Amino acid sequence: MLRRKPTRLELKLDDIEEFEAVRKDLESRKKQREEAEVTAGEEAAGIALGAEHKSREQIINDRIGYKPQPKVGVRAAHFGTFEF
């Protein structure tokens, strides 16, 4: 196997500027995401501390639009329950 000399990488001013721009962009996105999480957390705390208390199941049902309708007068059939 032939050995070759190591490749020399040169850092140019354009590369440094591009790196700084990308880093600032990522930092601003991270800050916006953290602010959104804080705001959402405050809203959730406000909802949880409101006059109307809902269980976790009810909150999820409301969020997905599921409205369970209880069945009236129907006996549940259970395995092993026999009536003669």
From TrEMBL:
Q: In which pathway does it act?
A: Protein modification; protein ubiquitination
* Any one Gene Ontology cellular component term annotated for this protein: anaphase-promoting complex
* Keyword Transcription included in the entry's annotation: no
Q: Give one Pfam hit by family name.
A: ANAPC_CDC26
Q: Name one GO biological process term.
A: cell division
**Entry keywords, A to Z:** Cell cycle, Cell division, Coiled coil, Mitosis, Nucleus, Ubl conjugation pathway
Q: Which family does it belong to?
A: Belongs to the CDC26 family.
Q: What is this protein called?
A: Anaphase-promoting complex subunit CDC26
Q: Record the organism.
A: Callipepla squamata
